[in-house]
Amino acid sequence: xxxxRFKLPWTATHFSQAxxxxxxxxxxPDDLWSMDSRAGAISAAFEAGADAPDVMRTxxxxxxxxxxxxxxxxxxxSSRVAELRxxxxxxxxxx
Length: 95
Prior knowledge:
This protein is mostly helical. Helix content is 64%, strand content 4%.
């Protein structure tokens, strides 16, 4: 991201300060960090049924493991997979 004032990439400190200013103005708690927004987007994408490679490319981690760590709703998604598997077995007449 380019800093409009200096036409240089933002520093981590500048980005953090800008995020905190906006977050406080929005009434967000101080224990919410900018990285939480990426994790939230990754989790929401998986909840919506997006494929893992598409989520990874969109969120820009270079490793699938990083994408999966950011997915904070794994328990909900695992439950949904278990329900789908059970429904499939039931449809085949299996218990």
